[in-house]
Amino acid sequence: MSPSSALRVNAPPVDLPDPSKAELLLLASVIVAAGLTLFSAAKLVRAPFQIDYGEGAMLEGAMTIRHSQPLYPDPYRFPIVLHMYGPVAYAAVACVLPHDAISFPLTRGLIVICSFAISFLLSCILRRLTGSWRVSVAFGLLILTLPAYRFWLYLVRADVIGIVFSLVGVAIYIWKPRLWY
Fold it and tell me: What DSSP designation does 151 have?
């Protein structure tokens, strides 16, 4: 009797569940959770008032750009204005503002669109890395349901806009590794 045959055990085959069914169940669960998250955030997106301090600062900077004034004025003259983010986020918010008006719902809509762009880009990256479209879409949508992210889903802040630009770079690198620069 050889050593390899001594280690063999004639065990009955195990009937494992079909992975595609598990992926489909995961995808369906995440779609329902993302839908409920968006449904609960819809009321806050439509709110015509400031929810967070950062929203007012973002809209003030966007209106400054909209009126063709310098975003970072002379710091030695009054009033002293501090803008805590880079100009790209303020410019993106300024693009969706109506002329000479402040609109919280429109700018929050931009952030919701950016959140979907993040979800889509994550799905594209994961599709390339896993090969499964169900897993990639499920984990792409999963970010919308995370408690830490749900708070940022509807607030006008520069963070979500910055994440979109970062993920665009990562997605280009993953899909076209020869274009690393």
Answer: T
CA atoms within 13 A on the CB side of 68: 0
pLDDT in tens, 32-88: 999 999 998 888 888 888 888 888 888 888 988 888 888 888 878 887 777 888 889
**Burial, 50: exposed, middle or buried (Cβ in 10 Å; 0-12, 13-18, 19+)?**
middle
**Model pTM?**
0.81
Burial (Cβ within 10 Å: 0-12, 13-18, ≥19) of residue 49: exposed
Instruction: Provide the mean pLDDT of the chain.
Output: 86
Backbone angles phi, psi at 24, to 5 degrees: -65, -40
Q: Which two tokens stand for residue 55?
A: 């929203």
Q: What confidence tens digit (pLDDT) does each residue in 155-175 have?
A: 998 999 999 999 999 999 998
Q: Which two tokens stand for residue 66?
A: 């909209």
pLDDT at 95 over 60: yes
The DSSP-derived string for 62-124 is: HHHHHTT--SS--TTSSSP----S-HHHHHHHHHHSPTT---HHHHHHHHHHHHHHHHHHHHH
CA distances from 13 to 5, 9, 10, 21 (A): 18, 11, 9, 20
CA distance 122 to 143: 9
